[in-house]
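Blackboard transcription, Thursday session:
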Amino acid sequence: MTAAAVAPLAGKRRTPWKQASILPGFPLAMGWTLTYLGLVVVLPLTALIVRPWELGLSGVWATLTEERVLASLRLSFGAAFLAALTNVPMGLLVAWTLTRYEFPGRRIIDAFVDLPFALPTAVAGIALTAIYAPNGPLGSLFAQIGIKTAYTPIGVYIALLFIGLPFVVRTVQPVLQDLDREVEEAAQTLGATNLQRFRLVVLPAVAPALISGFSLAFARAVGEYGSVIFIAGNMPLKSEIAPLLIVIKLEQYDYAGAAVVGLAMLFISFGALLAVNGVQLFLARRGRA
Amino acid sequence: MNFRQVDDTSPSVNALEIKGVSKAFGRFPALKDVSLQARDKEFLALLGPSGSGKTTLLRVLAGLEQPDTGEVRFAGEDFLALPVRRRKVGMVFQHYALFRHMTVAQNIAFGLTVRKRSEKPARSEIADRVAHLLQLVQLEGLEKRFPSQLSGGQRQRVALARALAIEPKMLLLDEPFGALDAQVRRELRRWLRELHDRAGVTTVFVTHDQEEALDLADRVAILKDGELIQLGTPNEVYEHPATPFVFDFLGQACRMPGVVERGRLRVADWESDAPTGAPDGAVDVYFRPDEVTFAPADGAGLAAQVRGVAQRGPDVRIDCLIEGETVELQAHGPTLPPGVTTGLSVRIKPLRPQVYAAG
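(Written on the board underneath:)
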């Protein structure tokens, strides 16, 4: 009350901290929201942030610069990035085929897309390993041309492709579905070639969804554990992912060390998602402002 | 009352020729053997209720739909052999179909910027062209806006400018004012006609609004269930509707059964000369509810009993009981004969009845 009364005197327009709403229950809803978020999200993250420092700054630094830790972080984020990047055009293609064409079995294929969501990741990992192992049906083919897939970073990449695909497809699909066909037809009548129609009309419309799909697939891939550890072979410095390293450190009762790796993952992921959001914001500003 | 259809098929006059075009979607026949012509620089309206095939015909012209049979020629050229993007037709859609992520200027320039490098105008030339078109559609100063920042009428004008930018051989408009409110519609209608006259481009306009078609077009083609029913100037089709459907579709209609014998038309207890060309035997007589005169009960005409008189703005609605059926007649305030009140017995004489064989 006093603040409101004083503000005009000060000559500054104060924006109220909260817009008036006709919906009742704001204090209760806000209170529960904050409590729940605090318990479920913030508290564990705080623990993660606090824990490593019992090693001291130098201890944290020493853990972070361990060759094995660096290699695992590089593999986890590198493979996740590459897999998500691959899934962007491939997911777009799948979504395109499913929305644009009418063919027998379309619904079944559509359901297949969700399998990586539904399958327990360990099951997926075992299945992928069976196929890509040197004596597996696909692995032996790759072996013939001298490429070892399972038990190498390539295996990690393959597993992450598998789990990431539905994220891209399912974010792009509704957007493609809602895309106004008349807009494309307008482009055609104005003389655009098929390629121009895709590049200038379709792609800008689905770009935000593609980026969302990318970040979802990327975030999921970074944290993926179950499907990867079977196919990766988990050789330190070569095909050992960061989440596995955390588990190993935990098994060795090195809780603080595990937290250091976790903290590093948290920061890198956060930075990456921030960058993606930035790109999205930029696109949104340029577009329908 | 002789119905004459203007039927000039010499190729030098006709820019657009459609011959025997049929198109079915699955089992549903959208177009059945449609043939019609549009003259150079003509404004042709395709008029019909929904499902009449008018939009399908327009899409065939644009190349967005391929007919099952038939021929489409423009200036003698086989249009069906050309893909959409080579036809150089300017298409305007009901829901604008603007590129949402492009500014107004980018939207208008689209057709020029997608051209092959050898045919693409220089940047400054494109900018000039866009500026000129913005002026033409009266949207100067809005070139930096995005479509979402424009009103419906403004968006449709952008769509029109975008279509005109490619200097189209033909302008195709698919219910362009369908999504706009009545006021804006009427304004844009006049403006579109002026634009057409200035741009001098053959225009095909699809609408289900008969008032719009009659007001705008040089000639109106009326379609029903995929068939061309009548083609003529607005006056011809309004004054001499070829079928009861056309009569009904172009305005309000009253229908009475009658008989034509030896050149005389008899409806209930009223007899008059039959219109020329009226078929003999049982007929359906159609007349407009506002094209009637009232006479005293002992005069000539259809015996009617007034059941109610209601003022509706400038119009007066008169409910009459004729031959046991309620008929809604219309008069304009000043033309209503004084004394016509509820309960009165009068005689009603349709001024220009149209007679069709009873069906």
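Lecturer's comment: The interface with chain A takes residues 62-64, 84-91, 93, 95, 97-101, 110-111, 114-115, 146-149, 159, 162-163, 165-166, 172 of chain B (CB under 8 Å).
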